[in-house]
Amino acid sequence: MSSDLVRPRAVVCLSGGMDSCVCATLAARDFDVFAVHFSYGQRTEAREQWSAEEVARITGAQELMHLKIDLFRMIGGSALTDEGIAVPSAKDDESEMAGGSLRTGHQVPVTYVPFRNAHFLSAAVSWAEVLGARTIFIGAVEQDSSGYPDCRPAYYDAFNELIRTGTKDGDIRVETPLIAMRKSEIVRLGVELGAPFHVSWSCYASESEACGVCESCVLRLRAFREAGAVDPIPYIQR
Amino acid sequence: MSSDLVRPRAVVCLSGGMDSCVCATLAARDFDVFAVHFSYGQRTEAREQWSAEEVARITGAQELMHLKIDLFRMIGGSALTDEGIAVPSAKDDESEMAGGSLRTGHQVPVTYVPFRNAHFLSAAVSWAEVLGARTIFIGAVEQDSSGYPDCRPAYYDAFNELIRTGTKDGDIRVETPLIAMRKSEIVRLGVELGAPFHVSWSCYASESEACGVCESCVLRLRAFREAGAVDPIPYIQR
Question: What is the ipTM for the molecules in this complex?
Answer without folding.
Answer: 0.91
